[in-house]
Design a protein that fits this description.
The protein is an alpha+beta fold. The chain has one domain: Aminopeptidase, CATH 3.40.630.30. It is 33% helix and 32% strand. The chain is built from 6 helices and 7 strands; from the N terminus they run βαααβββαβαββα. The strands form 2 sheets. The protein has a 4-stranded antiparallel beta sheet with strand order 1-2-3-4. A 3-stranded antiparallel beta sheet has the order 5-7-6. Strand 6 and strand 7 form a beta hairpin. The termini are far apart.
Amino acid sequence: MIIRPASAADWPALKAARLAALLDAPTAFGASHTSAARFSDADWQQRAISTPQRTFFLAFDGDKPIGLAAQVVAADGECHLIAMWVAQQYRGMAVAQELVEAVKQRAVDNGHARLVLDVAPENTRAAAFYQKQGFVFLPEWEALESHPHIQVQKMEWRPACDECIAEGSLRMPG
């Protein structure tokens, strides 16, 4: 298994993984399969290019995309983990953990003091997974954009030390 930031050449893998995620768990994401399926190839090519504002990470088994997660900086400067998904046959392995670690590292590398995500508390498997990765629930709720009847709760993760942010590393100082 390899996990790496997407590049422009990875757009077919990004498209395949994202559309598979939206079909597999349609109420877990802020986007819908219908809206994502309307994107042109040029849109997917642009999405695959990593920037400080948005990086998609892809997990591959050989050349097959098996998971994805993204680090996105919102207009207010808040850093988000979004689009987290792992193909069913790879769940329970290290794929999800390594994707989250890649997003955390990118957030720290870009100087963010925290990383946030939204999860429906009813999605107990995801909520428990994020808690094991060091995320904690915040008393902040909002409607899921793609399914406004679903309320999601914000979770946050902060590096263990302020020096780690200054160093751009998750490693403990010293």
